[in-house]
Amino acid sequence: LTMPTIIPPDSPALPAAFDILGIAVFALTGALSAAQMRQTFVTVAFFALMTGVGGGTLRDLLIGAPVFWVRDPFVAPVCLAVALLAWFTPVRWWQGRLLEWADALGLAVYSGFGTIKAMAWGVPPVPAMVMGVVTGCVGGIVRDVVAGQPSILMRPELYVTAGALAAAVAAAGLAMGFSPALTWAVAATVGFALRGAAIHWSLGLPAHEGAD
Amino acid sequence: LTMPTIIPPDSPALPAAFDILGIAVFALTGALSAAQMRQTFVTVAFFALMTGVGGGTLRDLLIGAPVFWVRDPFVAPVCLAVALLAWFTPVRWWQGRLLEWADALGLAVYSGFGTIKAMAWGVPPVPAMVMGVVTGCVGGIVRDVVAGQPSILMRPELYVTAGALAAAVAAAGLAMGFSPALTWAVAATVGFALRGAAIHWSLGLPAHEGAD
Amino acid sequence: LTMPTIIPPDSPALPAAFDILGIAVFALTGALSAAQMRQTFVTVAFFALMTGVGGGTLRDLLIGAPVFWVRDPFVAPVCLAVALLAWFTPVRWWQGRLLEWADALGLAVYSGFGTIKAMAWGVPPVPAMVMGVVTGCVGGIVRDVVAGQPSILMRPELYVTAGALAAAVAAAGLAMGFSPALTWAVAATVGFALRGAAIHWSLGLPAHEGAD
After folding, report:
1. Which terminus of chain C has a lower count of CB atoms within 10 Å, N or C?
2. Can you give the residue range of the structural domain that contains B179?
3. The pLDDT value given to residue B150
């Protein structure tokens, strides 16, 4: 009688615990970024949420799906809990390589997932690949732009590229008829391997030479 | 036959005159920000609109509601009229405390409203609280980011916090079964009191100590 | 059984080849902007896409239409092809006046189109005019904000103004009952003439004198 009910198409999902963990890792990078800029708790919480859910939010708006965290009772509270964790623990606890590797895993897993979800909603392969990159990278881009810092998009390190690789593999796998679960696993592995190699050997892409 | 008609759920609304007044106050802060940066009239008008409707726009996109001002024949013209007002009157007319207090009232009223509207659309309490903060604060954040200035999110003064308080009170009140109108009144009063205290006594939140 | 099918209302469309050409011109300005900032290919591709489809994306989200390029198999590939073109050709090939004039034509044509599409979806004239400005200008604004540069919105040259003129003419023409095709042609011509005059004679708008 009131709102149309949108029944989402079947698409594979992460086990709930892993899904929340992935969002929490992204949220933690946002919260720590705000803490390192010596911000207040409210700002830390805002950055946690923006970074944790930003990419998936834009993806869902673009493909016309209900925004995944708005009707979910757990995602927003977890992001706020992560903000509390970042606020009450020393920043140096989180400055080791563990967070960077967890972020790399989240990037690869969500970039693959974004593409698979988009194709389940009827999006063709190339724009679906874009949706994967958006899912994995836009949270971090918004975090950096709102903070007034050069965004991950503008740095030569292989970050967005690893997300793009995972998304491209996912789109190609589905287009070739492989199952979503297998495709997702391969896509995430390949993307994680590239991002991991970039972290380990400080790999970057060549830059354009500019206008001379 | 063509577009699905979305019948919005009942939710309390401001009397139309007050609603337009609230949007006009937000729009005026955007227009004055552009005027002080010595911009052209077109830029002043763009800032008036962005600041006046930005927060409610993002809230409506996130909860899946039709964007409130797009099909309304009055909201956009009022924002443009505010831009004309800011353009043709001396900026110092508006630099007193009155505008700051009107903005504080708008912040509290709309942060409460955003939460109440979201819960009327079926959003659970914690994400609905986020929707309230988005409604009250995102217009100002977009204004500052597009202007290339440090956003209200990055300043220690109690601004986003007052919006978050109003939104939290609204979510708690509805969750406890109080009527939307009463909840809204209490939420707006509490949020306005906190923002007013912050203006009067220059209160701020403690900042994180950073990474040492 | 699953998703509601939205049958869009009739509205005039550009012949497909011209439409793709217009998006390609916008995408090229984004790609070149990234190349001049000495960015990597992935960043060049992201900027091409953001600039090419950004304005129409926000318009479609605001009016509740399916986002035009997400289910289209050609638009995203064309933006990526433009990024390849910008990457493998010398930037100076593109620094002549031709690109600036092509961008002026795209600005006028899409600003008029955005207004006409919005009115076909039931948006009243003044917000529909805003939708036209959004369509023509937001891609460039996002490009500049993400790049950390002063946006076209903050420069005194007649750019957003020319888009606003085309949009206003389109809204007025439809409101007076002229056919969409005629209205579009007149709106685009007038907007292009103003932008062209601004390029040729370096016209700008007067700026506000600030707060003194």
Report:
1. N
2. 16-201
3. 80
